[in-house]
Amino acid sequence: MNRLQDVLKNARAENRAVLIGYLPAGYPSVEGSIDAMRAMVEGGCDIIEVGLPYSDPAMDGPVIQAAADQALAHGVSTPDVIRAAGAVADTGAAALIMSYWNPIEHYGVDRFAAELAAVGGSGVITPDLIPEEAGPWIAATDAHDLGRVFLVAPSSSAERIALTAEACTGFVYAGAVMGVTGAREQVGHAAQELVARTKEATGQAVCVGLGVSTGEQAAEIAGYADGVIVGSAFVRRLLDNRDPRKGVDAVRELAAELADGVRRGSKAR
């Protein structure tokens, strides 16, 4: 968790938002996904979300599902995902795993936390886990010094936001739009209001995701949020390039575009 906290602290000292990029481990292969994640860091991502592919993804849109389905078909496993997180950590970026709760519980809650910490991982985002049901997870992440990231949404009440923020030890993930993940032409209008409501409840960083795909959108969000989260747009670059080398180049270029947008937006705070 210290690396995650350091990344957020340093960005705050520079008065800028962080850029957080997501890719599922195992697409187009485990090594191919690691190469792409490294390229995202080279392009300007501060934090990488390593997705753990799951067969019943309630929040994932069609782009992420397409990549995750292929990763599962190739036999990607939880140890592969943890190894990918370790490879990201080796770059100096903060490495988080994004996972639904069922795979973590099935693997073993403490085992999962211990193995992630051992490779230098900084934390986990659990989109379908709520704080009231997270007792074993809170204990395991506290024991292994991992950050916990829970989600709030535009529909969240003030009480729900406060409860969720209190349970987070990394940052608070603010879903900019209702519904599944996926790049959109416009970021949801509720995003800025949700960030403001969440900041009223916590001094922690609040990062916005779901829908960001361009440098202009990244700049817009960086003007009021502590972090800009991009997932489907990166996955789409890999899906659109059958040549893995071209896919790696494409995600590096997108990361650079988004990082530039984040810097421009941060200056407008």
UniProtKB/TrEMBL annotation:
PANTHER family: TRYPTOPHAN SYNTHASE ALPHA CHAIN, CHLOROPLASTIC, TRYPTOPHAN SYNTHASE, ALPHA CHAIN. The active site is at E49 (proton acceptor), D60 (proton acceptor). SUPFAM superfamilies: Ribulose-phoshate binding barrel (SSF51366). Tetramer of two alpha and two beta chains. This is Tryptophan synthase alpha chain. The keyword S-adenosyl-L-methionine does not apply. GO terms for molecular function: tryptophan synthase activity. It is an enzyme of class 4 (lyase). Gene3D superfamilies: Aldolase class I. Belongs to the TrpA family. InterPro entries: Aldolase_TIM (IPR013785), RibuloseP-bd_barrel (IPR011060), Trp_synthase_suA (IPR002028). Its EC number is 4.2.1.20. Pathway: Amino-acid biosynthesis; L-tryptophan biosynthesis; L-tryptophan from chorismate: step 5/5. It catalyses: (1S,2R)-1-C-(indol-3-yl)glycerol 3-phosphate + L-serine = D-glyceraldehyde 3-phosphate + L-tryptophan + H2O. It comes from the Bacteria. Keywords: Amino-acid biosynthesis, Aromatic amino acid biosynthesis, Lyase, Tryptophan biosynthesis. The alpha subunit is responsible for the aldol cleavage of indoleglycerol phosphate to indole and glyceraldehyde 3-phosphate. The keyword Oxidoreductase does not apply.
